[in-house]
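Input set for joint prediction.
Command: fold jointly, output C-alpha cells.
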Amino acid sequence: MKARAASPDVLVDLADIAELRGIELGSDGTLELGAMTTYTDIIDSAEARARPILGEVCNQIADVQVRNRGTIGGNVCSNDPTNHLPPLLVAIGATMTIVGQAVERSVPADEFFLGVYMTAAGPGELLTKISVPPGKSDGFASVPIGKDGTCIVNVAASLTNRTARLAIGCVDAVPVLLTPDSTEDAAVRKAVHDANLDPPWDVHASAEYRRHLAEVLALRAVAQAAERR
Amino acid sequence: MDPVSRKTITVDVNGERYERELDARRLLIHFIRDDLDLTGSHIGCDTGNCGACSVLVDGTLVKSCMMLAVQADGAKIETVEGLAADGELNGLQQAFSDHHALQCGYCTPGMLMSATALLRENKSPSEDEIRKGIQGNICRCTGYVNIVEAIRAAAQ
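C-alpha cells >
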C-alpha cells in the first residue's frame, strides 16, 4: 500500500487471531510456523533452532523495526523476487497450508510461488501455516545492496544424505530449484549452467553479473551446508 | 462484521492515557504528531525506509509510518518525549549531547528510540551490535560514528 501498488477498499486486521502466530516443534522434528510469526519471533525462538538456517536468514532481513513487524507469511505471500524466504523455503522443502472457505490444502513450497507477487494462495484463501521438515545441513549466501538490503542474488542450499537442493532467488520471477548430481563444485557449477538462467538487469547489476553471482553463491551456499552435515 | 471507517481507540503514550476517535486509515505517526501534538517523532520518508518515526509499541520498536493507529488500540506507546524525566535529559540523551551525536537532528528522535530498545535488550552491546541496532535509522548527515560512540558511552 505504501508503494501505491495496491489501494484496497477494505482491510481485515488479523492481529487478534492467535492461531496464526507461534512456533511449534513436533515430536518428529517438524517445525510448524504460524503465518503471522514475525522474523524476531523466529530469531528468538528456542524451537526454531531445530532448523538453525531459519533464524540466521531472518536475522539478515532489513532492520530491527522490519523484523519486529514483518512476518514469514507476509514475506512469502508478497513473493517479491528479491525476498530471502522464498528460495530458502523451497530449498529446505517447506510445505504451505492454505485455508479456503471450504477446504484446507497443503502445497509444497516449490509449487507455491507462481510469479512475481503471485502465489498459490488465491482469492478467498489464506496462508495459515508453514511446515518445515527436520534438517540441519543448510546454507545461505547472498549479495545484497548494502548490508541486509535489497538482494541482487541469493541462493539457499539444503543437503540430505545423497541429495542436494539449491534454490536461486532474484534471477527469475520465482525461485529456481536445482538438484545437482552431487555437492562437488563441478556438479554445482554444471547445474547452474544447465539452468540457462536469464536474469533481469537493472541499475544495480547486469544480467551477466547476476548469472555470475548465481554460480558463486551456489558454491558458497553448498559449502556452508556441507560443513553442517 | 461490517467494515468501519472511523473508530475510537485508547492508548497510553508516555504514561498518559488518550482516547480519540479517528479515521481507520490514519497512520500511527500522524495520530501521534497531529492528534496528540507530540511532534518529537519525525516523518522523514513516510515509506518505512528512514526510521525517523520510530517509537516503541508495547516495548517493541516499530516505524510508526508503517502501522495504522487503530492497530495500536490498547497499546502502551513510548515516544522520544517520554525519555527525559522532569526536564532532565536521560543518560542516553546526555550521551548524544556529549558526543555530538546529532548534526541536523532530524533523525535523532528515531535514533534515540532505536538505541533505547537496543539497550533494554543488551546492556553492553558491541560496536557491531550497536550498528545492527540502528540499521533501520538513516542519518542523512551520515554522522553515524558519533551516534555509535554516544550509544556505547550510554551503555557504560
